């Protein structure tokens, strides 16, 4: 199991995946907005999306778990 | 009379406006979000109101909440600063319908200049050169490809309602253009509630030079010289200076006159900026007009000795421009550095707690919205201060900047200060040889 965490504090602008999706390594899964900049959150490994812990518009802090892969 | 002004903004620009209001004996009403409650502008204003939670939609963009305070405090005028609601024509109209002065041009001008396609048309009519591009909205891939073919690649796909570098995609070829058309339209609709897009020729070796203009209600228009803003990252300005180290006197005079003609063509009132793209042969093309006070206005204040916020208030009160064109003079050389809370190499944001902040000694003007001990939050623009040096000539200004950045101490957040040290020691910057691609070509680290 792999937890994808937020690299910085910000707002979830867009979620590009759904539970059950197969994701590749370096795939852009979530776009975070911080200080008027869009920051893509990529998967470090390939896997299947088990859980999405955030919704679009949510505010997250650095280190918060966004997505769980298996 | 104008005795009380509400400032519909935050941070450094709110502090900047308060300073001039204090000088003129005008009371100030500040609004602040939960995230900004400890920032200096909140205590500097005569009275402050909490406007809402941190996200801009619940605070600085919440027109209804702002209007409620305008009514409650019976303010005489609203100063929108830059960004947020400053170029929102319907907000300006709502304020005016309330019988309150909106410090800026009339809503018709704001609307026309906010629509980039419409403003291109208006400028063409006035005989001002515009960047070669499509003069109509592009709806289908075929229309976009035909327009791009007629001007030649690379092109920039732009949102008509866009600004601030958002909604712009550089397309090298037909494939990239086709790929980006729908997403750019979608994004334009989300960000600007206007899905109109168009293409413009991408000028490879370009300079971004703008002219400060000012108009009063009596139809008088003056320019306050140019600012060279070519050093940018992500289409956002990082360093601005005046005079431009690149323009020859003849070309400069033509641009200044074109800017005045552009302002006259739309019957411009209050502070505005006409932005041009200038190619290597000094051909210049109208890019857009910003209908507000510009972030980099202190550069102009340094070389002219004028207080542009004071001018804005005088003109908004219906007074004549305080000086005639022939009385205005550009003296010495000024450079502004925008200090951002971001990684100096990757340019990624770096919010956090400012543990140490010491600007050092000297006569560098620092317009900052923060102080030691406060938190830079992820909700707003990453700019924490503008540092403006002024010298008798460009070399002296660069020397002052060097001393300033060696003294500057900031701890707790990352900033782009190390980048400025590289820039002011770079031979190309020192000789004024730089284009808008400067930072992406140089790769300082």
From TrEMBL, chain A:
Transmembrane feature ranges: none
Cross-referenced InterPro entries: Biotin_Carboxyl_Carrier/Decarb (IPR050709), Biotin_lipoyl (IPR000089), Single_hybrid_motif (IPR011053)
The entry's keywords: Biotin
PROSITE patterns: BIOTINYL_LIPOYL
Domain Lipoyl-binding, chain residue ranges per copy: 1-70
PANTHER family: OXALOACETATE DECARBOXYLASE ALPHA CHAIN
Name the record gives this protein: Acetyl-CoA carboxylase biotin carboxyl carrier protein subunit
UniProt source species: Robertmurraya beringensis
């Amino acid at each position: 199991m792999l937890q994808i965490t937020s690299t910085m504090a910000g707002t979830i602008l867009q979620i590009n995946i759904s539970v059950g999706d197969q994701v590749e390594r370096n795939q852009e899964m979530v776009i975070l907005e911080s200080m008027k900049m869009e920051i893509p959150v990529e998967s470090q490994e390939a896997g299947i999306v088990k859980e999405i812990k955030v919704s679009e518009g949510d505010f997250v802090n650095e280190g918060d778990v966004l997505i769980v892969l298996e | 009379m104008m005795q009380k002004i509400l400032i519909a903004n935050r941070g450094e620009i709110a502090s900047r406006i308060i300073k001039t209001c204090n000088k003129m004996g005008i009371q100030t009403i500040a609004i602040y979000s939960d995230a900004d409650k400890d920032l200096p502008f909140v205590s500097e204003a005569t009275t402050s109101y909490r406007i809402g939670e941190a996200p801009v939609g619940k605070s600085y963009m919440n027109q209804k909440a702002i209007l409620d305070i305008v009514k409650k405090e019976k303010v005489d005028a609203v100063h929108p600063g830059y960004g947020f609601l400053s170029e929102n024509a319907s907000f300006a109209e709502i304020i005016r319908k309330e019988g309150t002065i909106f410090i800026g041009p009339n809503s018709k001008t704001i609307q026309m200049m906010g629509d980039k396609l419409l403003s291109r048309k208006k400028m063409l009519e006035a005989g001002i050169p515009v960047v070669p591009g499509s003069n109509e909205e592009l709806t289908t891939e075929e229309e976009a490809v035909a327009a791009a073919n007629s001007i030649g690649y690379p092109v920039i796909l732009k949102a008509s309602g866009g600004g601030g570098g958002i909604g712009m995609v550089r397309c090298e070829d037909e494939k990239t253009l086709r790929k980006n058309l729908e997403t750019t339209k979608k994004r334009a609709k989300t960000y600007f509630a206007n899905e109109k897009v168009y293409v413009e020729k991408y000028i490879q070796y370009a300079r971004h030079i703008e002219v400060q203009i000012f108009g009063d209600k009596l139809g008088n228009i003056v320019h306050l010289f140019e600012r060279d803003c070519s050093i940018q990252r992500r289409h956002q300005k990082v360093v601005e200076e005046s005079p431009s180290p690149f323009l020859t006197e003849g070309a400069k005079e033509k641009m200044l006159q074109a800017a005045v003609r552009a302002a006259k063509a739309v019957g411009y009132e209050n502070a505005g900026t006409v932005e041009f793209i200038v190619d290597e042969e000094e051909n210049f093309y109208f890019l857009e007009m910003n209908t507000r006070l510009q972030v980099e206005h202190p550069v102009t204040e340094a070389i002219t000795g004028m207080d542009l916020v004071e001018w804005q208030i005088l003109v908004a009160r219906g007074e004549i421009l305080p000086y005639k064109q022939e009385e205005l003079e550009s003296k010495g050389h000024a450079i502004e550095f925008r200090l951002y809370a971001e990684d100096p190499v990757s340019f990624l944001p770096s919010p956090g707690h400012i543990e140490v902040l010491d600007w050092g000694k000297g006569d560098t003007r620092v317009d900052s919205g923060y102080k030691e001990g406060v938190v830079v939050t992820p909700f707003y623009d990453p700019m924490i201060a503008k540092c403006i040096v002024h010298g008798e000539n460009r070399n002296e200004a660069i020397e002052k900047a060097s001393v300033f950045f060696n003294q500057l101490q900031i701890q707790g957040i990352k900033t782009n200060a190390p980048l400025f040290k590289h820039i002011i020691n770079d031979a190309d910057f020192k000789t004024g040889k730089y284009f808008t691609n400067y930072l992406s070509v140089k790769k300082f680290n």
